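Many introductory courses stop at the sequence. We go one step further.
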Amino acid sequence: MAEYDAQPGRPTAAEADLSHTQLEADDVDLHAALSGVATIVAGGRGVVDVLHDVAEFAVRAIPGVDGAGVTMAESSPGTPEVQAWAVTADFVREIDMVQYQEMHEGPCITCMQSRRPAVSGSLGSDGRWPRFGGRVSRLGVHSVLSMPLLVGDRVIGAINAYAYRRDAFGEHAVQLASQFAGPAAASVCNARLLSNAHDRTENLQRALVSRTVIDQAIGIIRARTGASAEEAFDRLARISQSEHTKLRDVAERLVDEAVRRARARLGP
């Protein structure tokens, strides 16, 4: 039996008598989604693009879904810090904006805090998220299945599956979503690692460029004044502070000025 947090006070959604054909079809869809997730390679693609791919595969893996979203978050005391998310439908984007940016409550936040799937079959009457549930039910969306994405003991995000009809997600859906969540979490984790590595590389490159420009400016000041390297740097720093301008920008201005003067002396 799948372990999940069902809606308090509401009977667990009864599983329909699924036919052998339906079970086989769900299994085929799950494996197709798992195969798709396994082929996701972030490379030069953005994190949101990868999250969108995972969300599309989630729609196929979990039966009864009308729209899904995948969220990447950083675990923190209290409410997890949402870093990025992607959705398969506009109504899911509207729901997630209400959840993350407006009310700061909802199934995704709860499942990341509890590290357990959260299921609701009637959001309008779900006491766990009274403001969120009432707002979403007015959009005609009544069911949700939120699945935490875990890598080891870390929560890195969640999958949110929504349906218009009530009691859309029972144990069968939770079981399939649980099987999909592990590989999905690996894809999201890899996308975040590659994004962080890319950001670090860009920051390092900017730092190296800044250092080069500053060293050039120091050399120009020394050539003009006969100051030591330390004295030339202190002069740049004083200009930066007095003008409330970044040190790199002061250095670039000085270097550009020196280049213009040199070209002027050389003439056409």
